[in-house]
Write a structure and sequence with these properties.
By secondary structure, the protein is an all-alpha fold. Helix content is 73%, strand content 0%.
């Protein structure tokens, strides 16, 4: 279920282009904040994996995450291709950062 409900739901008149763009900008800011938080956590995860001698990346875990994205996107009417694109962009960033941390950069 969506955590964010559009402001337009409570508006009586159709929204203007500016109002819609403002709403998209506000959502973009929230998305970036959430991704930054996720990255901070996965950076810490990479450090923990390195300390415990685990590999920095787990292909099986990646498959689980993609499957979770597919399920989450179905709940909000995004298609499988869109879900996979979102998952792979986020996971690609995470993988690259975790490798750098693991390699000591």
């Amino acid at each position: 279920m969506r955590a964010f409900i559009s402001k337009r739901v409570s508006m009586e008149a159709p929204a203007s282009t500016k109002e819609l763009r403002d709403e998209v900008s506000e959502i973009d800011g929230k998305i970036i904040d959430l991704i930054a938080t996720r990255i901070d956590i996965t950076d810490e995860l990479a450090k923990a994996k390195k300390r415990s001698g685990q590999s920095y990346w787990d292909d099986e875990r990646e498959k689980e995450i993609v499957a979770r994205y597919l399920d989450l996107c179905k709940e909000v009417s995004l298609n499988e291709d869109e879900a996979e694109q979102i998952a792979h962009v986020i996971l690609s960033i995470s993988k690259e950062r975790q490798k750098k941390i693991y390699d000591g950069d």
